[in-house]
Automatic annotation (TrEMBL):
InterPro entries (alphabetical): NAD(P)-bd_dom_sf, SDR_fam
PANTHER family for the chain: DEHYDROGENASE/REDUCTASE SDR FAMILY MEMBER 11 (PTHR43115), DEHYDROGENASE_REDUCTASE SDR FAMILY MEMBER 11 (PTHR43115:SF4)
Keyword match Cell membrane: no
Family: Belongs to the short-chain dehydrogenases/reductases (SDR) family.
GO molecular function, one term: oxidoreductase activity, acting on the CH-OH group of donors, NAD or NADP as acceptor
Record keywords: Oxidoreductase
Pfam family membership, one: adh_short
Span of the signal peptide: none
Protein name from the UniProt record: Dehydrogenase/reductase SDR family member 11
Species whose genome carries this gene: Camponotus floridanus (Florida carpenter ant)
Length: 263
């Protein structure tokens, strides 16, 4: 990823899990990393551990991506202080482990706001930043296997799968728009199966003891996803990875051979 060294990366949802690990690997790779989330303390701890491990500075900024003005402030800061954003990792995400048929409208809105609307706002701002500078850019959308095979997920996840199908559609639309606008911006959707992070702990907590429930269950690590981002950034200028589905190895053969069907 040497071609991106010295450029600016913005990672949303960098306070834990996939986002934190991605911010770390990007900083290690020589990028100037802006790490945003609501839990500023976590971001500061991440910045301190990156500083002590690799002697590089990252920029932690508190930002609730449900608030458009907070996102816009981050992009403005990036423009004024670092020249703009070149690489965007649209990673912030939420799940609620309640069925839609008994769920609260507020939860539906939160999931769509964070997983879909914030991604659209950030992507628009990244494209405008790159366009203004006639620069190169890269957008990674952290999608999910739930955005392709909702039938495989039988536990209640509210409108999470719907939000991730929206990410699949948005990535395709953005790619077409970028091509039509003749911009030098790559876009990759990364769709993981189950990854050991706080999100999984929250998703399982109402079902019993999380450690017991996950015992022996094949699961990805946050680094497996962060490594894919680094790989994408390492591709030559003429090659674009459009879609990656990554699952834990042992779980790759779906138990349901017809993932689009309940039969
Ligand atoms: N874990 C899995 O099995 C799995 C599988 C497929 C896809 N994914 C996707 O991977 C992405 C990262 O999730 P993760 O697994 O790493 O879970 P995680 O550790 O819970 O991370 C979620 C991140 O999103 C941030 N976030 C949530 N609401 C936010 C808001 N309103 N404003 C700003 N940031 C917000 C959280 O930060 P704050 O709480 O500090 O704001 C946190 O940093 C998500 O898009 C998720 O859908 C996860």
């Amino acid at each position: 990823m040497d071609q991106w060294a010295g450029k600016v990366a913005l990672v949303t949802g960098a306070s834990s899990g996939i986002g934190a690990e991605t911010a770390k690997l990007l900083a290690k790779g020589g990028m100037k990393v802006i790490a945003v989330a609501r839990r500023l303390e976590n971001l500061k701890e991440l910045a301190a551990s990156i500083k002590s491990e690799f002697n590089v500075q990252i920029y932690p900024i508190k930002c609730d991506v449900q608030q458009e003005e907070e996102i816009l402030k981050v992009f403005k800061w990036a423009e004024e202080e670092l020249g703009g954003v070149d690489v965007l990792i649209n990673n912030a995400g939420v799940v609620v482990n309640k069925p839609i048929i008994e769920g609260a409208t507020e939860d539906f809105r939160k999931i769509i706001d964070v997983n879909v609307i914030a991604m659209a706002i950030c992507s628009r701002e990244l494209v405008q930043s790159v366009k203004k500078r006639n620069a190169r850019g890269y957008i990674f959308n952290i999608n999910s296997i739930a955005g392709h095979y909702a039938d495989l997920i039988t536990m209640p996840i509210s409108v999470y799968a719907a939000s991730k199908y929206a990410v699949t559609g948005m990535t395709a639309s953005l790619r077409n728009e970028i091509i039509n606008a003749k911009l030098d911006i790559k876009i990759t959707s990364i769709s993981p199966g189950m990854v050991q992070t706080e999100m999984i702990e929250k998703a399982f907590e109402s079902l019993g003891d999380v450690q017991t429930l996950l015992e022996g269950v094949p699961i990805l690590k946050d680094k497996d996803i962060a490594d894919l981002v680094i790989y994408g950034l390492s591709t030559p200028r003429n090659a674009q990875i459009c879609e990656v589905i990554i699952t834990p190895h042992e779980a790759i053969a779906p138990k349901n051979p017809r993932p689009f069907s309940n039969q």
